[in-house]
Amino acid sequence: MKIGILTGGGDCPGLNPVIRAVVRRAIQSNITVVGIRNGWKGLVKAEIIPLNLQAVSGILPRGGTILGTSRTNPYKKENGVPAVLETFKKLGLDALIAMGGEDTLGVASKLYKEHKCPVVGVPKTMDNDLSATDFTFGFDTSATLAMEAAERLVDTGRSHRRVMVLEVMGRHAGWVALYTAIGAGADYLCLPERKVDVEDMVRRLKEAHARKKVALVVTSEAVDLGETGKEELDEFGHMILKKRAVGEKIAEIIEKKTGIETRSAVIGHMQRGGAPTMFDRILGTRVGVKAAGLAAEGKFGQMVSLQGNDVVGVSLDKATGTLKTVPTDWLALADLVCTGCAGKAKALASR
Ligand code: F6P
């Protein structure tokens, strides 16, 4: 048996542990593994590298992906899908393990449904916004890095008696911002799941600053500031969010309305690099072994999912159906510990 493996979409820490685990599990069943270069692009162009024990040696603690990645969507390229099917034949692939977020897994799901392509999905995203899995690897490392960055901002903010704003990634789900804010003890949290209440934010920050001579705001890159206008889109139709400079805009509003000197910082792609945390190494290893196992057993059209503490296979369809956004009980918890808003805290206490 021969299986291919690809990583698509934005990279995140934990991809290399998965690749390593797939190869090690495949070897156990005498399966040959080839790496597809640069996501779906490599399958369109038949660009591969052989993967064996030697090739994956030492990659466990390394950030990024040794295979390279891209945001190529074969469904958006002329002859993209026929080229993918042709490469399958040419390489003699019996299975493909596709690692990615909703975009990459969406393509995998369509190829399975429309062309019976033997695919197994592995959920990957630092945004943690995939349904049908409790956590995705990459999230823990990224949110931990953001939390540490936030703490550094507080150190310098305290010296200068400033309000500090940290903008984090996460697209249209606020998980990264939520965990960063709770973990760093932020004074205000702005999420895409609700519109920013500017007056409430200003009041809370004034209070926090009066008490501590510093205040921290964590904002997600996709927060709604009531703006309109044409947004630039990628091949999957997603907004390129870094162009919105949300953190900078929030800092300007705060400085104007509070009269307190305010600075903003964007952690950006630094959040996606670096060694994976232990959690992401273990989760990556577990999902890699499971994915190779599903492929070996011929269980296609499935995605590996973390449910509680179990790693199981679920239908790819389920995985790509709806975005997992931050629910109201988490918002209530964040309000309690981040903004100290008595009214909202009461609502939480009575649950
Ligand atoms: O989906 C992962 C992610 O890191 C988002 O949080 C972010 O908006 C986006 O990718 C950035 O994409 P790119 O690397 O293409 O700039």
Structural write-up:
The protein is an alpha/beta fold. Helix content is 44%, strand content 17%. The strands form two sheets. Strands 3-2-1-4-5-10-11 form a seven-stranded mixed sheet, with helices on both faces. The chain has a four-stranded parallel sheet with strand order 7-8-6-9, sandwiched between helices. Helix 1 (15-28) runs parallel beside helix 10 (278-296), helix 6 (139-160) crosses helix 7 and helix 8 packs across helix 9. The chain starts with a strand and ends with a helix. The mean pLDDT is 93. The structure holds 6-O-phosphono-beta-D-fructofuranose.
In percent, how helical is the residue content?
40-55%
Task: Indicate the low-confidence ranges by residue numbers.
Answer: none
End-to-end separation in angstroms reads 53 Å
Strand content: 15-25%
Q: Report the bound ligands by name, code or SMILES.
A: 6-O-phosphono-beta-D-fructofuranose
Strand order of the largest sheet: 3-2-1-4-5-10-11
Order of helices and strands: EHEHEHHEHEHEHEHEHEHEEHHH
Record field, number of beta strands: 11
Provide the residue-averaged pLDDT: 93
What structural class do you assign from the helix and strand content? alpha/beta
Counting DSSP H or I runs of 4 or more residues, the number of helices is 13
Radius of gyration: 22 Å
* Major β-sheet annotation: 7 strands, mixed
Name the overall outline.
elongated
